[in-house]
Amino acid sequence: MNGSVHSSSSAVDIKLKRGPSGLGFNIVGGVDQQYVVNDSGIYVSKIKEDGAAGLDGRLQEGDKILAINGVVLEERTHKDAVELFRRAGEYVELRVLKKSSHHMNGPTGSQPDHDSSSPSSSSSSSSTLGILAVFAGAAAIFAFIYMRHLKKHF
C-alpha cells in the first residue's frame, strides 16, 4: 500500500457494544511503535469476522482510530491506547479516520497484531515466538552434543 499520505479520507463516529470476546479487532501503532511513516496514530490491523466490529461492518482494517469515548489518541503509546480500550466499558464510541492511501512501514498485516480487548496481548505474539526460538535452540544444542557423544563411542 505505498502512496501518498492520506489522500481523501473522512472521519466517522462508530459506536460498538463489547461482545463476549471484546470488540473484535486488533490495533497497531503509537508513538513508540509507528506503523505508518511519520504518523504515530493507532490503526486497526485486523478485524475478527464474528466479533463486535466485524458484525457491525463499519470499521475496516487500515482505519485510524482518532479517539475512544472522546479521549484523543494522538501522541499516546501503544500500551496507553490498549489500556484505554480495556477501560472503555460495554459501549465504546470510536472516532475513526477511514482508510485511505498511505505509506506504511510494511504491507498490511505484516506487523504484529495487538488485540485491544485482551489483557497482555501486546506481547503475546512476540513472546510465543521467543519461547519457540529458545526451545528450538535448546533442541539443536542437545542434538549436537548427543551426536558428538555418539561419535566418540564408535
Automatic annotation (TrEMBL):
GO terms for molecular function: protein kinase binding. The keyword tRNA-binding does not apply. PROSITE patterns: PDZ. InterPro entries: PDZ, PDZ_sf, Synaptic_Scaffolding_LAP-MAGUK. Its main location: mitochondrion. Keywords: Membrane, Mitochondrion, Mitochondrion outer membrane, Transmembrane, Transmembrane helix. SUPFAM superfamilies: PDZ domain-like (SSF50156). It is found in: Mitochondrion outer membrane. Residues 13-100 form the PDZ domain. Binds (via the PDZ domain) to isoform 2A of SYNJ2 (via the unique motif in the C-terminus). Interacts (via C-terminus) with RALBP1. Interacts (via PDZ domain) with ACVR2A (via C-terminus) and ACVR2B (via C-terminus). Forms a ternary complex with ACVR2A and RALBP1. Interacts with MAPK12. Interacts with DLL1; enhances DLL1 protein stability, and promotes notch signaling in endothelial cells. Residues 101-123 are annotated as: Disordered. One of its GO terms (biological process) is receptor clustering. This is Synaptojanin-2-binding protein. It comes from Collichthys lucidus. The chain crosses the membrane at residues 129-147. GO terms for cellular component: basolateral plasma membrane; cell junction; mitochondrial outer membrane. Gene3D superfamilies: 2.30.42.10.
